[in-house]
Design goal:
By secondary structure, this protein is of the alpha/beta class. It contains twelve helices and ten strands. About 50% of the residues lie in helices and about 15% in strands. The longest helix has 23 residues. The chain binds zinc ion (ZN). Zinc ion binds next to loops. Keywords: Kinase, Nucleotide-binding, Transferase.
């Protein structure tokens, strides 16, 4: 991860420099390993609400690699007394976006500690979000594949508006029942709601930022910033576009097919 440190040091301010140095003092140098000798190093892209966390998490279980979500790294750092936690809580309290530098420093610390424990692969979720992040990542890790999960915008909108959180146990649910007819050669999409158990039903709340206007704006910003990142990987022949055909029961087998993993589970249990 020393290469990340060098890149950051070259590109960012001196106040960040000291933070980065504190973060990386114990980090081992980056190791480039033959892809055949290691596990997958994949990236999942997809707009908010598309369910990329769900698919990334399922694949990480299947392939026995960590699912590294930058959102989780931020939450973990906030709840710890790590070197960036006070700076982070200030940013989050002010409703600002967490900078590339902080995300990269959290990610590189996570990758370094994984390497030290013998991890040889990962699935990244929520990173890279910008070209700058993609370039920095390219400098330190060989990404094999970038999976871009896509869903029609009107479905995404309905799904986002259907999100509910249980105010008691904190679990996420979705009350949207989607049944879109196919049109212009596109197949229809059916997605069942993810309903809560009876004891959560009366405690469901909607996030205050899940309104139509906010969700549309979130999607617009996502599309604007993600297009260059998609192009970055497309031009390197690493982008796999995947149109989700529906909910998890419909999409999961098709995704495994697209990733040439459809007989992976059988092969793995046969080898065991
Ligand atoms: Zn509950």
């Amino acid at each position: 991860m020393a290469a990340i440190t060098r890149l950051i040091n070259r590109t960012t301010s001196s106040s960040y420099y000291s933070l980065a140095r504190r973060c990386f003092t114990h980090a081992p140098p980056p190791q480039r390993v033959d892809p055949k000798q290691r596990n997958v190093q994949w990236v999942f892209l997809g707009c908010p609400g598309v369910g990329k966390g769900t698919y990334a998490s399922r694949l990480s279980n299947l392939l026995a690699v960590p699912h590294i979500a930058t959102g989780d790294l931020v939450r973990h750092e906030l709840s710890s007394d790590g070197p960036l936690s006070s700076q982070l809580s200030e940013i989050v309290n002010q409703g600002k976006l967490v900078s590339d530098e902080i995300i990269i420093s959290l990610l590189s610390a996570r990758l370094a500690s994984g390497e030290a424990k013998g991890e040889s692969g990962f699935i990244l979720d929520g990173f890279p979000r910008t070209i700058k992040q993609a370039e920095i990542l390219e400098g330190v890790a060989d990404i094999d594949l970038v999976v871009n999960l896509k869903l029609r915008e009107e479905i995404l909108l309905e799904k986002c508006l259907g999100r509910r959180i249980c105010s008691q146990c904190g679990k996420n649910f979705n009350v949207a029942s989607i049944n879109m007819k196919g049109e212009n050669g596109r197949p229809g999409t059916v997605m069942a709601p993810l309903l809560p158990p009876a004891h959560c039903m009366s405690k469901l709340i909607t996030r205050s930022d899940d309104t139509e206007a906010v969700v549309k704006e979130r999607l617009r910003i996502y599309n604007e910033t993600s297009q260059p990142v998609e192009e970055f990987y497309r031009s390197r022949g690493k982008l796999l576009e995947f149109d989700l055909p529906g909910g998890i029961p419909e999409s999961w087998p098709k995704l495994l097919q697209a990733l040439n993993l459809d007989d992976y589970e059988e092969k793995r249990s046969a080898a065991a």
